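We treat protein structure as text, and this decision shapes the records that our systems exchange. The tokens are whole numbers drawn from a learned vocabulary of local backbone shapes. Below, we set out a record of this kind in full and without editing:
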Amino acid sequence: MNETIKRIYVPMTETGFYILYCLQEPMHGYSIGQKVQLMTDNQINIAPGTMYGTLAKMEKDGLISFVRKEENRKLYKITELGKEVLDIEIKRIERLYKNSMGVSLSDQNNTQI
């Protein structure tokens, strides 16, 4: 992975994370917004400007790709590069969560032996 991409996307914004996470299956911006609201019990509402700006940037950077147009809506899907970025971010979030529970990396490594 290109260091520039890593520097731009890791750590990810919450909005960027949810958009990339949702695009593990083809979706358009409106359906991403609905799914994020459902996943977060309406705590996160992605505004259209943020949604479409993020989709355009992620497409330009190669994290997502255009799949097809359906009823005047563009469907996107995560690319292999996007999956790499998402995986790095998920592991980072898992580490943060474990650390917040009082588990250090050395504790995790010792329990895996």
User: Anything to note?
Assistant: Helices lie at 3-9, 14-22, 29-39, 48-60, 80-100, 105-111. The mean pLDDT is 93. Residues 80-100 form the longest helix (21 residues).
